[in-house]
Amino acid sequence: MTKKSFIFSPQTLQKIGGVSQLSYGIRVFIALCGAMALSWSIDKIDWVIPLFLGVIASALAETEDGWQARVRTLLITLVLFLLTAFGVQALMPYPWAFGSCLAVVAFSLTMTGALGRHYSVIAQATLILAVYTMIGLNQATHEMPIWYEPALLTLGALWYGILSIIWAALFVHVTLRQALSSLYVEIGLYLKLKSKFFPPPSSAAVDTLRLELAQQHGQVVVALNKVREILVSRIGSSPGNPRLGRYIRFYFIAQSIHERASSSHYNYADLADTFFHSDILFRLQRQLSESGTSCRKIGEAIRGEHAIDLRDSEEAVAGVLKSMAYLEREAQPVQWRLFRSLRQLTDNVVGLQQELDKIPKLEDESLTDASVQIPQPRVTLRSIWAQITDQFTPKSQVFRHAVRMSIALTCGYAIIQNVDIDVGYWVLLTTLFVCLPTFGSTRKRLYERIAGTVVGLVAAWCLITLFPMQPVQLVLTVVAGVVFFVTRTNRYVLATAAITLMVICCFNQVSDGYDVILPRLIDTLIGSTISWLAVFFILPDWSYRQLPMTFAEGMRRSAEYLRELMRFYQEDSVDEQVYRRSRRRAYNADALLTSTLVNMQQEPGHYRTDTELWQRLVIRSHTLFNYIAAFSAHRGKLIEQPSNRILAEASAYIVKSLEDIAQCLEDKHLVTFNLAVFEEWQAKLEVGAAEEDERHYFVQSQLQSLFDQLKEVRRLTHELQLQVHGDKLKTIS
């Protein structure tokens, strides 16, 4: 057996560059080693701390743009860092002025989150650098020049920023590949969950499964939005790039697969009862499961840029077609009633496989109309100002978080000034990392931060005792810094332990590291307590208050989505961009509703009001959304038939009913529930259904299913309003 030697080739380098967390760790490793080498070579070991902190702040501010956009982002970041560091240096001797400016700056920077995650990341890193500056000035053993701390912090930030730009230029599409890979993996998980509906589980397990499906649907939507955000930034800088054209096709295929996967056709329980003695539902289950596996393989192939094997899902869909062909020949008369519904379901599954089959054939292609396919937002100073000012309301989560962060940091600073705490500015640093927009996320981060700090302090005490040699401790510092950045997204306890170890080792180079172990723990506990109190008492974001408006937005967006989908069945020409925009809004609204419910379930018991009823309502809402999404799988203009008018009126009624629910929730009017109206519409749709062609039959059966779901949504909303508000609700006259 021969041993293969490792060859460091351009292809190997590309694979390393394509592994997101690994490449992140490599950049941080190079940056920290460079900073340490500079300090060591010029015999300025006390430079290590500010240079390292500058590197960390810059790495935390790193965005997912292309290298051209990263140049602009780095310039903005460096200007903010310099202004912040010099501002802290100038105002530190004047506590009242410093506290006032801290409150204003914290609020202003947090409000930039209204512009999107891109700016929120830079703002957060700027606040972190401000605290790093305070820590550095507070720990200075002798008077330093005014430029010392700001210059070294900014130098560290510049050094990492240059590495980030070079990396982005060498591995142009690494971030996009990572995002696409994650997207296909999430879709694969969604398909795996969807396959559990065939044959349907017991009635007791259906709601649990539907809630899991709704939550995973939210993860897919987040992944879709991330890919779209990266594509928008790439199209602006290199719209004609052939590789980019291929990745845009990957994105659109993922959208189509997700839309087909999220579709629901007829009632699965009825299909299971009717075709109980057939293997068709088991074959559908296998096909959806294998499609999920294929999506995961596609994700892995995109990440590593290797061949894609879809044979298993192709064999599974062939089995579905054989089973359908047998049923068509041998089906009993009682089964023919639902055979067309079953055929529509299998057609959707076959269509899903056809979308998958397009992927191995994709090639690089220049798309001169890329900006038309994914429209670029028009950015002006006026539009930026409008985005921010639109959020100046207590209803805005960004505004509430900005107020909360401003007050929390100011209170932390007041405690530092009035209580004798060693290295007290770690209180502010803990607050910045722990205080998050929602109570559930803050509580989780609080526990993780405290646990990680304790583990890190124990590890630091052991390691600096066992290895008192300076070179070993510097190596530990670099390794801990890399571990922090590699794990901070998915394993925050380990990340906190690593950064704590790094801090203690750094301080041990310029003073006694043992002296900061206890202050670090005390400051972490104080900062965590401030964060918990802030998120609990300052404009609290209790999800039960947000759910009615979030649900109303979901109903409105679903109505808009259905209206645009029905145009495909009623009109010769439909604006594809308008349809895509309505689809994206509907998917985002549905995902937000589910995440709001999940947040409520993480909140204190007395704030989890009517959880069971809300859960049932969210499940029904998501199921209704799934039935709407099915119209996308079979869209095409209906041929002229007498029933067209009834179908158009029925769909218009559903749209109007969804909008009425939204309006009633917003105006705090009681949602009415009249069972006779639904029965009347379903009777109208039933007339003549058997004689219609396939597309008419599909529209008719889907509208009937929508009426079933709408009936439950209105009933549950009516019940919830009466339970929560009772006689305080107004009725529409």
TrEMBL record:
Pfam families: FUSC-like (PF12805), FUSC_2 (PF13515). The chain crosses the membrane at residues 21-39, 45-61, 73-90, 96-114, 121-137, 157-176, 423-439, 492-511, 517-539. Residues 74-354 form the Integral membrane protein YccS N-terminal domain. It is found in: Cell membrane. InterPro entries: Integral_membrane_YccS, Integral_membrane_YCCS_YHJK, Memb_transporter_dom, YccS_N. It comes from the Bacteria. It is a multi-pass membrane protein. Its main location: membrane. Keywords: Cell membrane, Membrane, Transmembrane, Transmembrane helix. Residues 414-533 form the Integral membrane bound transporter domain. Belongs to the YccS/YhfK family. NCBIfam families: YCCS, YCCS_YHFK. This is TIGR01666 family membrane protein. The gene is yccS.
